[in-house]
Amino acid sequence: MAGIVANNYGSFNVTFVGGNGAELTDTNGKKYIDFVSGIGVNCLGHNNPILVEALTAQIKKQIHIGNYYTSDTNIAFAEELTKATGMKRVYFCNSGAEANEAAIKLARKYGWLMSKDNGGNRKTIVSLNHSFHGRSIATLKATGQEKFHPDCFAPYPEGFKYIEPNDFSAIEKTFDDSVCAFLMECVQGEGGVNLVDEKWAKAACDAARKAGALVIIDEVQTGMGRTGTLFASLAMGLNPDVITAAKGIAGGVPMGACIFGGKAEDVFVAGDHQSTFGGNPLACAGGRAVLAEMLKPAFFEHVNKVGKLIKETVLSWNMKCITEVRAKGLMIGIDITQSPGDVQKKCLENGLCVSTAGTKTVRFLPPLIITESQALEGLKIFKAALESV
Ligand SMILES: Cc1ncc(COP(=O)(O)O)c(C=O)c1O
Question: How far is CA 249 from CA 40, 176, 231, 280, 340, in A?
């Protein structure tokens, strides 16, 4: 109800009461095709029977235990996730910002360990212009967009600098022995669905490593199958020391993860970082169900097939108002000449949920299980909205 839930979001006046697969239902029984998935979260769709069964079984067994102890579900998910990524350890938390906060602390401690006998000056974290890493004070500062550093929330922590993605000439002058970590998204989600050039990403990660810094890839949005593989950075061969994940990791139960190995493996010791809810068994049960589904042979094939269908269909319209389409798996950005917010509103009126990113982009992040016919049905509504706005 307006005024009681804090108005931090500027939400639309639509209240959903149910959902199934890639479809949502509002209080009036109206159906919507979901191209948003709760901002890249409901990767297995709504009311997924496998996820519901796993969560129900875990609720009956144990919802929460706390980190004085361990739980079998928590240990099992940690083992499965590290095996799937080739990493050594995982710190579980509750959101993307928290996963990045953990990675920032890890990087700072790593830099301190590396430089403490020489003045302790290895403190700087390099991130990309146009990036987004969260809304806590430190992750806002790690975000390479000035609009996320307004005076009203100042002061921000020191020790962050930014590099322009895809600019090879910037790499050499950026990385030196003051840098403890390089932090990047493989596709900048909130920044506008900007694909970072693979050759540039490799060169920047190599330069960071050569300078003695950790490579941290923020896969909060690109990870857990969104871009057509489990993690984009692994598919791109970036060889990260740290991957951060959240959003779809537990299929809709709040969860984040800072997954690490390589030079980062032994940096954290007991007491360095903690969270009451971190590794909560209910979230871990969701995580296990999601990961098991994604590791089935045809899962990513489907994601890439539907992603390609959406991109090719939008391009085939040859509409003047569409200036560019960028896509990796089911993370799709469409630049348009109209206001993305107006198109989003029109789509919603006509039964399609879409999101926006950057200043000129409509963004699609549908459930990864969306069918081809649902995708085409949603695209019809999107095209009509473009024609009418
Ligand atoms: C790349 C990236 N990092 C971090 C975050 C922050 O995640 P959360 O909202 O779960 O804190 C987001 C959220 O959109 C994101 O896209």
Answer: 10, 34, 11, 13, 28
d(CA 64, CA 51): 18
User: Based on the domain organization, do 23 and 157 belong to the same domain?
Assistant: no
Torsion sign (Cα): 385, 309, 246, 52: positive
Q: Does 11 reside within a domain?
A: no
CA pair distance 123, 114, nearest whole angstrom: 10
Best residue for ligand 1 mutational test, from 247, 275, 355 (most atoms within 8 Å of Cβ): 247
Supply the CATH number for residue 358's domain: 3.90.1150.10
- Report how far ligand 1's centroid is from the alpha carbon of 366 (Å): 17
Residue 80 belongs to domain spanning: 51-294
Same domain, 224 and 328: no
Structural domain ending residue among the three candidates 235, 263, 294: 294
Q: How many domains does the chain have?
A: 2
Task: Kindly give the number of the ligand 1 atom that is closest to the alpha carbon of 39.
Answer: 14
Q: Model pTM?
A: 0.98
Tens of pLDDT along the chain (389 residues)?
Answer: 457 888 899 899 999 999 999 999 999 999 999 999 999 999 999 999 999 999 999 999 999 999 999 999 999 999 999 999 999 999 999 999 999 999 999 999 999 999 999 998 999 999 999 999 999 999 999 999 999 999 999 999 999 999 999 999 999 999 999 999 999 999 999 999 999 999 999 999 999 999 999 999 999 999 999 999 999 999 999 999 999 999 999 999 999 999 999 999 999 999 999 999 999 999 999 999 999 999 999 999 999 999 999 999 999 999 999 999 999 999 999 999 999 999 999 999 999 999 999 999 999 999 999 999 999 999 999 999 999 99
Tell me which residue has tokens 């490799």. Answer: 202
Residues near ligand 1 with C-beta < 6 Å? Answer: 95-97, 100, 132-134, 185, 189-190, 218, 220-221, 246
Domain boundary pick from 256, 271, 294: 294
Look at residue 9 and tell me if it is in a domain. no
Residue 276 lies in a domain: yes
At 208, list the tokens: 């960071």
Q: What angle do CA 347, 353, 355 make, to 5 degrees?
A: 95
Q: What is the CATH number of the domain that holds 208?
A: 3.40.640.10
